[in-house]
Structures are given as structure tokens and as C-alpha cells.
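stuck on this fold:
=====
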Amino acid sequence: MAAAQGASSSPKSGFAFPGMSGVLLVATAVLMLVNLYLIFLVAPTDAVLGEVQRIFYFHVPIAIVSFVAFFVVFVASIGYLVTRKSRWDSVAHAAAEVGVVFVSLALLTGIVWARPVWGVWWTWEPRLTTTLILWLIYVAYLMLRSYVPNKSQGALYAAGLGIIGFVDVPIVYYSVQWWRSIHPSAVVGPLADSGALEPIMQAVLFYSQAVFLLLFLYLLLERMRLRNAEDRLSALRFVSRMRR
């Protein structure tokens, strides 16, 4: 009975922000509609690439959000190893799941963009290859968590992989500079040349980036809330088995 009582009160492994999630959902939906308007009706058509260049306003923000997600995994994994508090593990797990979604979309939008520009769907150039490796690392992270039978042991192993795996993020970012590549060089950030983008293009890109970051925050909070519900359900099942 003592074990059952302990299990019934145990899981509060993450954070729950139901009110904030609702506000974020509405705000993100409205801002995303504005974003689509800016991308397709305000941003000028690229003189060289034409209309296909508009995928740039999705591809770049999505790729950057995936980096942010894996940075959250990195920080939360360190937090878990230092404190062994389950809330850090909950953040890392949720961020990894959302990050895999975004890096998958980054690969897909990159492939769609590459076909009309490079003439092929895929080529083993440095940026694409290192991004694929990044995708494989965090898919392995999620598989590790799924297949390790002991939950605390799985969290420990995943924290180690979450920290080591983040090494590939700066490799992806600097790959265009470090190796010969047909991938375009950076147009924003510390590696970008001054005036690489027209002001209106840059403004639309920054706005799109902000909207996708907001979407990431919403998805992260929702996934953490779902994990809380899963933990409570597991505890109730454990109590039910103990009472039989």
C-alpha cells in the first residue's frame, strides 16, 4: 500500500501551462497568417531564382528553430545530469521530439528547393550531409529512450547523447565555410556579408523567424503537458495493479 501511495503522488515531471498554451496557439495562428501574407504578397520575387526562392522564408527559420530545439536539449540534459530532477529530463525529451520534427522539415524544404535550383533532389554536399547526420543523432536519441526498459537509466543515457549530439549543430552551421559546397553561403548571422539581403527580404525573414520560434515554444509546452498526462496515467495504472 505504501508503494501505491508513493506512486499516486509521484509524477510531476514537467511543467503545465494550459493558459499560456492557449494564448500561444491563438497568437501563433494569427501571426502565421500574417507571415504567409508577407512571404507571398510583400516579399519581392528574387531576380535570379524566381518564385521558388520564397521557400527560403520557411527553410531558414525552420532550420534555425531545429538548432534552438537541440540547444534546449543540450542545456536541459546538463541540468538533468547535475540535479537529477525529472523536470529537466521532461524538457530535454520534449525539445528533442519537437526538434526532430523541425529538422525533418528543414531537410524536406531543402530538398524541394534543391530540385529546381540544382537539378537534383539530393546531393551529398556538406550542409545536407551534416544535417542528415543531425537528424539521425536525434532520431537515435528518441529510439534510445524508447527501448531502454528502465526509465531513469534511459534518461541518463539520453542526457549523454543529447550533450554529445549537439556538437553537430555548429558543424552544420560552419560546413559551408569549412568545405567546398554548392550550398548558398549565409545571408543572415555572423557569417553573412553586409547587405546580403535586401531590407524588405531581411525584414520578412526576421518576422518569419520570430513566428516559427513562437510555434516551437507552443509545441514544446504542449508536448511537456502531454508528458505530464502520460506520467499521471502511468501512476494510476501502477496503483490499479497494486490494489488487485
Q: What stands out?
A: The helical segments are 2-9, 18-42, 56-83, 86-118, 126-147, 151-165, 168-178, 199-243. The chain has a mean pLDDT of 86.
